[in-house]
Design goal:
alpha/beta, Rossmann fold
Length: 247
């Protein structure tokens, strides 16, 4: 019998891995964004109830391996997964996508958390937020001299001093130039997510001489095995599945 894998996802890398999995493996999503309909593996939507709830799930579902391919900034989910795996004596693997690195001509302003973002934005008038949903919780705090453009997965009406764009990458340099110009963007706010799907904004910011307020990655738990790309994880999973079939 093939050992069951629990894939913790929500990123494009995770979806690439999920498309290689069949029954009886499970692809777990927090519930944000669209649920893919073209997968052979089971799809689970929603939380587990913290580390203890996840540990119970691992035992009840006879999970033999957890692969954490969540967003690099989903620190709490990763911490819960590592603790649950330790408690349940289940191997914990992690996909740690390489962060972007500043290039010649970049003007990155590194910050920690939302308070750091707001402080760094004080001199600017037309920021573009590419942080996901977080700015939506602060729409009532937009300073009178600023107008925010917020790009995330969720449609939202915004208000007089904020425009919300619901869009999903990959984004192109041409599209980013058009957005930056039409919205009169004077600073870009980003997480250092890594990957190619949303990197065009950094290239266009460099090209246009715009600063980037970059949120540092949170610390993540140690993994028993780490991968830098989805393909590395897919190859390792294929080898382990084959070994389990031959056992």
């Amino acid at each position: 019998m093939t050992a069951r894998i629990l894939l913790l996802g929500g990123t494009g890398d995770a979806l690439a891995i999920a498309r290689t999995l069949g029954a009886p493996h499970i692809y777990s999503l927090a519930g944000l964004g669209r649920v893919p309909a073209d997968l052979a593996c089971a799809v689970r939507v929603g939380g587990f109830g913290g580390a203890l709830g996840l540990a119970r799930f691992l035992a009840e579902e006879d999970i033999a391996l957890v692969l954490d391919a969540t967003h690099p900034y989903a620190a709490q989910i990763s911490a819960n997964a590592a603790r649950a795996c330790e408690a349940a004596h289940v191997p914990y693997w992690a996909l740690r996508r390489a962060p972007w690195q500043p290039q010649p001509g970049d003007d990155w302003r590194m910050v920690n958390g939302w308070a750091g973002v707001i402080e760094a934005l004080a001199p600017f008038a037309r920021p573009l937020f590419t942080l996901g949903r977080e700015p939506l919780a602060h729409l009532d705090e937009v300073p009178e001299r600023q107008h925010w453009t917020i790009r995330c997965l969720d449609a939202h009406p915004g208000h007089a001093r904020a425009r919300v764009i619901d869009a999903r990458g990959p984004f192109t340099p041409e599209g980013e130039r058009k957005l930056f110009t039409e919205a009169c963007i004077d600073v870009v706010v980003s997480k250092n997510s890594g990957g190619a799907a949303t990197e065009a904004k950094l290239a266009v910011a460099r090209e246009m001489g715009l600063p980037v307020v970059m949120m540092r990655r949170p610390p993540l738990p140690d993994a028993q095995r780490e991968f830098a790309s989805a393909q590395q994880a897919i190859d390792a999973l294929a080898n382990d599945i084959q070994r389990s079939l031959n056992a």
